[in-house]
Design brief:
The complex is a heterodimer of chains A (334) and B (118).
Chain A: H1 2-26, E1 34-38, E2 44-48, H2 50-75, H3 85-106, H4 120-141, H5 151-162, E3 183-191, H6 193-213, H7 215-234, E4 237-243, E5 246-251, E6 258-262, E7 266-274, E8 283-286, E9 293-297, E10 301-308, E11 313-317, H8 321-333
Parallel strand pairs in A: 9-11
Antiparallel strand pairs in A: 1-2, 3-4, 4-5, 5-6, 7-10, 8-9, 10-11
Chain B: E1 2-5, H1 13-26, E2 35-36, H2 39-46, H3 50-62, E3 66-69, E4 73-76, H4 80-101, H5 106-117
Antiparallel strand pairs in B: 2-4, 3-4
Helix pairs in contact in B: 1-3, 1-4, 2-3
Classes of the chains: A alpha+beta (334), B mainly alpha (118).
């Protein structure tokens, strides 16, 4: 309840108050109009009347806050995750940080043309503040289900995960029986918002750092940012598919690259509860202290495991893993 | 989401695929915003022609249940209210089929539903 109050009211209200109160306290020391835009060299080149600037900032903050409250009204009733929370928090904090930077640069100068320089470093600081607030917004909402149907499954996974169980949660229960000649496919997708958010944050962070650095080393930073963002983006989304060919895991928004375990190579299938820290963390990784085991970990909780005839294992975190396991069993039997 | 098709059944394959997706949405197996396999992938998985899947996806799109994006596949567009309605529609279809098997006319079924609402 407290988390909800902070997310929906406390955080945004604090940012709003900080903006308005700072403007009121400093209004005696600020020029009117005040410098609100700076050229690439850091020199002030645009201005606005103080009231208009404060209204614009507050309006931007209220718009983001409004999107959050609107989603809380439509989704919050069912206890679903407010997916705009990280973005709304990031925007509010970014705008508030820009406003504070503007006030600081204008403080105690007689004319806006005399305002302090504001360069890329200030923008980078504002972006960092926004990214941190976005992470905070995400942290306050994590663990909530994204969609109605997933609610019960997510709940079970979280409860079992809380018990710290990483051992097998048991073989898949009922086997899906296939009639002769019948064909079937099971498919689930899983999106990791932290990974998607991280990809964007990495890209923006490195590009800004690259621009600040400039020159050849700047380009290296930009290239590193793109590479890091691509690898994080690839692990932001997976689609697991079970069909007559076996288990296929497709990575990334474009469904490529992909990894397949052929049906006739599968020796055993089961479901388990994945505790990321016991699997060496999130991402695509070799499981520590278990030779030949590879895991695709996007979140804590329910996972599907296939053991190949040569003893190698593939573990994938996915919802309704039991459904996938049951179909694999049925396909193997037929 | 589990989709099963059987060429030996009377219903054409594209209808079987369509029903499978519909049932998965109604059951909440796939939520709003979740991605369905691309038509080409689903066709390969079920060993059917890609046009069969596209035909099923096309009907689902016309019913406002999914959104088709070039190159990005199909995305479920069914809010909670729509999902609930779909679940009831499934039951309604079952009821009609059951009534026909029992030899009760469609008109009588409508009357029985009205009675049940009282």
């Amino acid at each position: 309840m407290l988390k909800r109050a902070i997310l929906l009211v406390g955080g945004p209200l604090a940012a709003l108050l900080v903006t308005v109160v700072t403007a009121l306290l400093l209004s005696g020391d600020l020029p009117d109009p005040l410098a609100t835009h700076w050229g690439t060299g850091g020199e002030p080149d645009g201005n606005m009347p103080l009231p208009a600037f404060v209204v614009a900032v507050v309006a931007a903050e209220l718009a983001s806050w409004g999107s959050l409250l609107w989603q809380a009204r439509t989704r919050g009733r069912d206890g679903l995750q407010l997916t705009v929370a990280p973005y709304a928090w990031a925007t509010i904090a970014f705008v508030a940080a820009l406003a504070l930077i503007t006030f600081a640069a204008n403080a105690e100068v007689a004319d806006w043309r005399a305002a302090d320089e504001v360069g890329l470093l200030s923008v980078a600081i504002a972006l960092a503040v926004g990214a941190l607030a976005g992470l905070a917004g995400w942290a306050l909402e994590r663990g909530r289900p994204l969609a109605g149907g997933v609610a019960e499954i997510g709940g079970v996974g979280a409860a079992a995960g809380g018990a710290g169980a990483s051992a097998a949660a048991g073989r898949a229960g009922a086997t899906t029986l296939l009639a002769p000649g019948e064909r079937a496919v099971w498919s689930r997708s899983l999106v990791s918002r932290p990974a998607a958010f991280g990809a964007v944050a990495l890209l923006v962070g490195f590009v800004v750092a690259g621009l600040l650095t400039g020159g050849a080393s700047g380009w290296i930073l930009v290239a590193a940012g793109v590479a890091a963002a691509v690898s994080a983006g690839t692990l932001s989304e997976i689609v697991a598919t079970v069909d007559a060919r076996g288990l296929t895991v497709a990575f990334g928004p474009f469904g490529w690259p992909r990894k397949r375990v052929a049906l006739d190579r599968i020796a055993r299938v089961d479901t388990l509860v994945v505790e990321p820290l016991k699997y060496g963390g999130w991402g695509y990784r070799r499981v520590p202290r278990r030779a030949g085991a590879t895991a695709v970990v996007l979140r804590r909780g329910e996972g599907l495991r296939v053991i190949r005839d040569d003893g190698r294992e593939l573990i994938v975190t996915i919802d309704d893993a039991a459904g996938g396991a049951a179909l694999l069993e049925a396909l193997r039997a037929s | 989401m589990l989709i099963r098709i059987d060429p030996s059944r009377a219903a054409p394959l594209h209808e079987q695929i369509e029903d499978g997706v519909r049932a998965a949405i109604a059951a909440g197996d796939v939520g709003d915003g979740e991605r369905l396999p691309a038509a080409r992938e689903l066709a390969a998985a079920l060993d059917v022609n890609v046009h069969t899947v596209l035909r099923a996806y096309g009907v689902l799109r016309d019913d406002g249940l999914i959104e088709l994006r070039r190159g990005r596949g199909a995305v479920v567009r069914a809010g909670d209210a729509q999902r609930r309605r779909l679940a009831v529609a499934e039951r309604a279809r079952e009821l009609v089929a059951f009534a026909r098997r029992q030899g009760v006319s469609d008109r009588e079924v409508v009357e029985l539903v009205k009675e049940a609402q009282c």
